[in-house]
Specification:
This protein has helices spanning 26-32, 38-46, 63-69, 119-122; strands spanning 14-15, 49-59, 77-86, 89-98, 128-138, 153-162, 165-173. With 185 residues, it is an alpha+beta fold. The protein has a single domain (14-178), classed as Chorismate lyase-like (Chorismate lyase), CATH 3.40.1410. The protein is globular and about 40 Å long. The structure holds 4-hydroxy-3-methoxybenzoate (VNL). 4-hydroxy-3-methoxybenzoate is lined by residues 38-39, 51, 80, 82, 84, 92, 94, 96, 117-119, 169, 171.
């Protein structure tokens, strides 16, 4: 079984406190560091978003994901991968990985999301909080999905707790997102 329908390999993540993070331009940082809902921000900037689910079900975490989630390297986890469209363009790709134990109780909503954006749960549930945040700059050509920008892409990965159980959400931006809301999008 392969790891991802979106990515050819595990991205290289770096800590947001590293010196190189401070060199990222402000208009990009503002998205990478956003602490409120990206769903809501993209919705507001484009007037309407649609979630296209690429994969949802049991899958293989990348090694760095298994480590973050405290899973043995070969343990399957629940994986959701989506492409988010707005204004007729792909805007964001997201990969969510949850160990089986996270899907019990409050986390069981995750498996019933369908095409509703994950943000609807993440930012409305009192049981969910964000912990660690990391960033990445993906090389061109890492995508398995067609119709995306061929340029290198910025991304972020956040570890959340759902009723104290871990959930990892990686989000990758198409470059035109950084021009949204400036009148030249
Ligand atoms: C999802 C994940 C949607 C991360 C998102 O924005 C996001 C999803 C709409 O899996 O539905 O930022």
């Amino acid at each position: 079984m392969f790891h991802s329908c979106l990515l050819r390999e595990d991205p290289r993540w770096f800590d947001t406190h590293l010196p190189k993070s401070s060199k990222i331009p402000g208009r990009i940082r503002s998205w990478l560091a956003e602490s409120a809902s990206l769903t809501a921000r993209l919705q507001a900037a484009t007037g309407g978003i649609q979630v296209q689910v690429q994969k949802q079900g049991w899958g293989r975490p990348f090694l760095s994901e298994a480590k973050h989630l405290g899973l043995p390297w070969n343990r399957l986890a629940w994986v959701r991968e989506i492409v988010l469209y707005g204004a007729d363009r792909p805007l964001l790709l997201a990969r969510t990985v949850a160990p089986q134990g996270t899907l019990a109780g409050a986390g069981s909503q995750l498996t019933r999301l369908g095409t509703r954006p994950l943000g609807e749960i993440l930012f409305t549930s009192p049981y969910i909080r964000r912990e660690r945040l990391e960033w990445t700059h993906l090389p061109a050509g890492i995508w398995k999905v067609s119709g995306l920008s061929p340029l290198p892409a910025w991304g972020r990965r956040a570890l959340y707790r759902v009723a104290d159980k871990p959930l990892l959400v990686g989000e990758f931006f198409m470059p035109w997102v950084f021009t949204l809301g400036r009148g030249d999008g």
